[in-house]
Specification:
heterodimer; A: mainly alpha; 2 domains; 8 helices; 65% helix; B: alpha+beta; 11 helices
C-alpha cells in the first residue's frame, strides 16, 4: 500500500532540506564573521528561558533585544539564518509527513525515519530557543553543522524504502513510545551540543581569546541552556523508557529483560540522572557536570548506531540491510 | 555491607587517654555512613551502575539466549571460562552488579529518609522570619507607598495569598527587643513545598520499583512451548519445552490453566513483511468449560494476572508412514524450526521409535521444509514465507535412535553420534511435494501429506508487574513535580519613610529551582507596586466607598 510518488516526493524533500539547512549554515557563518566581540555586560540573557516547561512565567526578552553583536549586519545575517532554518525545518517535517502518507503509518518505523525525526526535533528545539533568546543565534553553526552532517550520513547510510512495518510495530505504542524517544533524543542533542560549546567556551583563557570562541555566548548562558534542555528532556526520556516497558510487556512477554536497547536506554537514563545531580553538587558543578552531559549524548548516539546496527536484540527494526 | 566494615585499629594512632574503642568505632562508622550517603558518592555509584550494565549488552547473556552463550564458548574457548568466572554472562544477576545497586540504594535511603522527616516538619512549621537585612539578598528591592505600614502589608498579603503563598505576619517590634534597632512589622510567605514532595516521591518510587522487580523475580515464572494446530498444553513445568522460575515458586501453586491451539494465521504484506500473527485458542480449567479467544502479537491473553503470548510461529510438515505389511500411521508431524525468518525455511526431525519391529529398526526422518519451495540443481530452498507450494527435503534413517540411553537429545535434530557410530544409517532421501512418497528399501513408504502451522506460546506469571507499573507512574509524577515546580519564599518588611504617614516596604525573594529568578522577582514587585497604588488611590478618594474600577 505504498504510494510511490509520495515516497519519491519525500526523498526529494530530503535533499531540499539538506540544501536549505546548508544555506542557513552559510548565513550563520556570515553572522559569526561580521559580528564583533560583544561586551560582557550584554551576556546576561536568559538563555533558553523558553525551555522552562512549566510555562509559568517566562522571561520577557522576546521583544527585539538589545543588539548583542555590535553590528547591524551580523544581526541581519542572524535573522536571515533563523528564517532559513525555519524554512528548512518545515521541508524537513514535510519529508516525514509525505513518508507517513506514502506508507500509511507513522513515519518512524525504521532507523532512517527515526534518525531523521530526531534531527528534526533537535533543529526545532534550537530554532524555538533561538527565536526566544536572540543571543543563542550565535551557536546556530554548531547546531546546524552536526544536523547537516547527520542528515547526509542518514541519507547515505540508513536509507530505507518507504514501506509497511512488521506486525510487532503495529501498535498504538509506536506513537507513544517512539515519539517520546525521538523527542527525548532530539532535546538531549541540543543539550549535549550546548555542553560541548560550554566546555570550549569555559576553557581557561577563552575570555581573552579572539576569533570564534569569543563569539560564542557566555559560558554561563551555555551551561544554563544545557541544563534546562536536559531538565526538559529527562522526564520525556523517562516516559519513553516506561512506555517502552509497557509495550514490551504486551509484545515480548516481559516488561524488562536487559535487551541491548533496554540496557543502553537505562545507561543513558542513569548518566543523565548523574548529570542533573552533578550540576547541583559541589565539586561537580561546571566543567565536570558538562562532561557528564557529553557522555550522556555519546551514550544516546551509541544506543542508536551501535546497538541497532551491530548487536542483536529484540529491537531489530532498523530495516537497514 | 562492605562499607560498614570494622575499623582498622592501625589507622589513627590513638592517644592513650582517648575515647573508648567503642566510641571510636561508632565515630568511624558514622563517618563511613556520611561518606556513603553524600551526593558525591551517589554520583560515582550512578556512574558505576551505568558502567556495570555495559558488559551485559556487549556480551551474550544467559538470561537472553543460552545458545549465543554456548556459541561464544565455542568461538572463544580460552576467554569464555575466564569471563564466566567474572559472571560476565549473567551480568544482571551477578553479585558485583547487585553490590553496586544495593550500595546505591543504601546511599539513597540514607539521603532520602532523613529528608522525609525534615519535609514533614517543614510542612507543619510556618515560614521562617525574615532575615535581618533583606536588601542583602540577590533578589530584593524597595517599594514606597503612602499607605500606613499595616495597610500596606495587608495589600501585599492579599496579593501573595492570591498567588497561593502561605503567609505569616510577624510584628517586628514585639519579636525583637525594643530599642533603636527595632524593626517594623514583617511578612514571610512561601510556596512550592510540592517540589520537595516530588523529589521525595521520585526517590522513594525508585526504591518501590526495585522491590517490585525483585518480588517479581522471586515469585515469577515463565514457560515456553511449541504447539501445533489441534494440540494444546497445560500450565505445568513438565509440559514446557523450556521454563524459568524464581526461587520462591512452588511448582504446585501454578495456576491450573490449559490452552489449545485451534488455528494459527500469519498474514503478509505485498513485500512479504509480516503484517499479523493471530492464534485462535481455547482455554480454561483442565476439566472446566473452554473459552475461545484470539491472541496475537501485541495482544496476549490476560487471565488472573497471568499472560499467554504468541512469540513465534512455523510449520509442522505432516507425513503418513505405511509399513510393508500395510499398516498405516497417518498424521505424523513435528514442528520444524525456522532457520530463516524471511522465507521460513525450516529444519527439524521426526523420531518414530515405535514403528519398526524392534529396537534396531526404529525410523527417523530429518529434513528441511520450504513453505514455497524452489528446486535448483536438486537443492531445495524457500522463496516465500507463505505456504504456496510446500515441499520437504527429507533423509530417512533406520536403526537405533538412542532415545532411552539416558542422555538428553534435542527433539529438533537426530543424535549425530548415533549416525557416526553406525547405529543409525541412511536408508533413503528425497525432495517431496504434497502427495509424493519416498519408498524405503524395506518397503516402508513415507508420504508427505501436507503441513500444519505451529505457534510458539509463552506463559508468564509476574506478581510484581503491577507494583512496578505503579512505582514507575509515581516516579514520573514525582520527577515532573521535582523538575517543574519551584520553591519560593518572599519576605516583606514595612518601615517608615521618615516624613510621616507613608511606608517603605523592603522586599526580597529566595527561589529554589525553575531557572531565572530575577525576571520573576521584577514581575512580582511590579504587580505589588500596582496593587499598592490602586489601594492608595482608593483610600485617598473615599475610604467608605470602594472605587468603581
Amino acid at each position: 500500500m505504498t504510494d510511490s510518488s509520495l515516497a519519491a516526493l519525500s526523498d526529494t524533500l530530503y535533499s531540499v532540506s539538506v540544501a536549505v539547512y546548508s544555506v542557513a549554515l552559510l548565513a550563520f557563518c556570515a553572522q559569526l564573521a561580521f559580528g564583533r566581540r560583544r561586551e560582557r555586560a550584554r551576556e546576561l540573557v536568559g538563555a533558553g528561558a523558553g525551555a522552562a516547561p512549566g510555562g509559568g512565567v517566562l522571561v520577557d526578552d522576546r521583544a527585539p533585544a538589545p543588539v548583542p553583536d555590535g553590528t547591524a549586519t551580523a544581526t541581519r545575517w542572524g535573522g536571515i539564518a533563523i528564517g532559513v532554518t525555519a524554512i528548512g525545518a518545515l521541508t524537513h517535517a514535510a519529508v516525514l509527513l509525505t513518508r507517513g502518507l506514502a506508507a500509511g503509518r507513522l513515519p518512524w518505523g525504521n532507523m532512517y525515519e527515526f534518525a531523521t525525526a530526531v534531527v528534526l526535533v533537535a533543529v526545532v528545539v534550537y530554532t524555538v530557543l533561538a527565536l526566544r533568546t536572540p543571543n543563542l543565534r550565535h551557536i546556530g553553526v554548531f547546531v546546524l553543522g552536526p544536523a547537516i552532517l547527520a542528515l547526509v550520513a542518514i541519507g547515505l547510510g540508513l536509507y530505507t524504502e518507504a514501506g509497511p512495518v512488521v506486525a510487532a510495530l503495529k501498535s498504538a505504542w509506536l506513537g507513544v513510545h517512539v515519539t517520546a524517544a525521538i523527542l527525548g533524543f532530539g532535546i538531549f542533542m541540543v543539550s549535549g551540543i550546548a555542553s560541548v560549546l560550554y566546555l570550549v567556551r569555559s576553557r581557561p583563557g577563552a575570555d581573552s581569546a579572539t576569533g570564534l570562541v569569543s563569539r560564542l555566548p557566555a559560558a554561563g548562558a551555555l551551561d544554563r541552556l544545557a541544563h534546562r534542555t536536559a531538565v526538559f528532556g529527562f522526564p520525556v526520556w523517562t516516559f519513553a523508557v516506561i512506555a517502552g516497558a509497557i509495550w514490551a510487556e504486551a509484545s515480548w512477554g516481559r516488561f524488562w529483560a536487559w535487551d541491548p536497547k533496554e540496557t543502553w536506554s537505562f545507561v543513558a537514563w542513569v548518566v543523565y540522572a548523574a548529570y542533573l545531580h552533578a550540576r547541583s553538587t559541589a565539586g561537580w558543578r561546571g566543567r565536570p557536570a558538562a562532561w557528564v552531559n557529553v557522555v550522556g549524548l555519546a551514550v544516546m548516539i551509541f544506543n542508536l548506531t551501535f546497538v541497532n546496527l551491530v548487536s542483536t536484540g529484540l529491537h531489530s527494526y532498523a530495516g537497514v540491510e | 555491607m562492605t562499607t560498614t566494615a570494622p575499623p582498622r585499629p592501625t589507622s589513627p594512632p590513638s592517644p592513650p587517654s582517648g575515647p573508648s574503642p567503642a566510641r571510636r568505632a561508632g565515630a568511624l562508622l558514622l563517618r563511613w555512613w556520611r561518606r556513603l550517603t553524600a551526593m558525591r558518592t551517589a554520583i560515582i555509584l550512578l556512574f558505576l551502575l551505568a558502567l556495570a550494565a555495559v558488559p551485559g549488552s556487549l556480551l551474550p547473556q544467559r538470561a537472553l539466549s543460552q545458545n549465543n552463550v554456548r556459541q561464544y564458548f565455542t568461538d572463544h574457548p580460552d576467554l569464555a571460562p575466564v569471563l564466566d568466572r567474572l559472571y560476565l554472562f549473567d551480568v544482571f544477576s551477578s553479585p558485583w552488579f547487585a553490590a553496586v545497586y544495593l550500595l546505591l540504594f543504601v546511599s539513597l535511603i540514607g539521603c532520602v529518609v532523613p529528608r522525609v522527616g525534615e519535609h514533614v516538619r517543614a510542612l507543619r512549621t510556618p515560614p521562617p522570619p525574615a532575615p535581618g537585612n533583606l536588601l542583602r539578598l540577590p533578589d530584593s528591592g524597595r517599594l514606597a507607598t503612602p499607605l500606613a505600614p499595616a495597610a500596606a502589608l495587608d495589600v501585599v498579603e492579599e496579593e501573595l495569598r492570591v498567588r497561593r503563598f502561605r503567609v505569616v505576619r510577624r510584628d517586628g517590634a514585639a519579636s525583637t527587643p525594643p530599642g533603636p534597632a527595632a524593626r517594623g512589622p514583617e511578612l514571610s510567605a512561601e510556596k512550592g513545598h510540592l517540589k520537595e514532595t516530588g523529589n521525595l516521591l521520585f526517590h522513594l518510587s525508585l526504591l518501590a520499583l526495585l522491590l517490585g522487580l525483585a518480588g517479581g523475580k522471586m515469585w515469577g515464572y515463565e514457560g515456553s512451548i511449541l504447539v501445533t494446530e489441534g494440540q494444546g498444553f497445560c500450565n505445568t513445568f513438565q509440559q514446557y519445552d523450556t521454563y524459568s522460575a524464581g526461587p520462591l515458586v512452588d511448582s504446585g501453586d501454578l495456576n491450573s490453566l490449559c490452552v489449545d491451539l485451534d488455528q494459527f494465521r500469519a498474514e503478509y504484506e505485498e513485500n512479504l513483511t509480516a503484517s499479523s500473527f493471530t492464534a485462535d485458542i481455547r482455554y480454561g480449567e483442565p476439566s472446566g468449560e473452554d473459552q475461545e479467544t484470539t491472541i496475537g502479537v501485541n495482544d496476549p491473553l490476560r487471565i488472573d494476572g497471568d499472560r499467554v503470548y504468541v512469540t513465534g510461529h512455523g510449520f509442522s510438515p505432516v507425513f503418513t508412514v505405511t509399513l510393508p505389511d500395510g499398516t498405516e500411521f497417518p498424521e505424523i508431524f513435528a514442528p520444524f524450526l525456522p532457520t530463516d525468518q524471511r522465507t521460513l525455511a525450516s529444519e527439524g526431525a521426526l523420531k518414530l521409535p515405535d514403528l519398526g519391529q524392534g529396537q534396531e529398526e526404529q525410523l527417523a526422518l530429518e529434513g528441511f521444509f520450504a513453505p514455497t519451495g524452489l528446486l535448483q540443481g536438486g537443492v531445495l530452498t524457500s522463496v516465500d514465507p507463505r505456504p504456496l507450494a510446500p515441499q520437504v527435503a527429507i533423509i530417512a534413517y533406520q536403526g537405533y535412535l538412542g532415545l532411552d540411553s539416558g542422555l538428553p537429545q534435542s527433539v529438533y535434530s537426530l543424535d549425530a553420534t548415533q549416525i557416526e557410530r553406525g547405529r543409525l544409517s541412511e536408508v533413503g532421501a528425497a525432495n517431496l511435494s504434497v502427495g509424493e512418497s519416498l519408498d524405503l528399501p524395506d518397503g516402508t513408504q513415507v508420504t508427505f501429506t501436507g503441513y500444519k502451522e505451529f505457534a510458539a506460546l509463552q506463559y508468564s506469571h509476574d506478581p510484581g508487574q503491577l507494583w512496578v507499573l505503579g512505582a514507575a507512574i509515581a516516579l514520573l509524577t514525582g520527577l515532573l513535580g521535582l523538575l517543574l515546580l519551584r520553591r519560593e519564599r518572599v519576605f516583606v518588611r514595612a518601615g517608615s519613610d521618615g516624613d510621616g504617614g507613608g511606608t517603605v516596604l523592603s522586599l526580597a525573594s529566595l527561589t529554589r529551582g525553575g531557572g531565572e529568578s530575577g525576571p520573576r522577582f521584577t514581575a512580582l514587585s511590579d504587580d505589588l507596586r500596582d496593587a499598592l497604588a490602586t489601594a492608595a488611590a482608593r483610600t485617598a478618594t473615599d475610604p467608605e466607598v470602594p472605587s468603581r474600577d
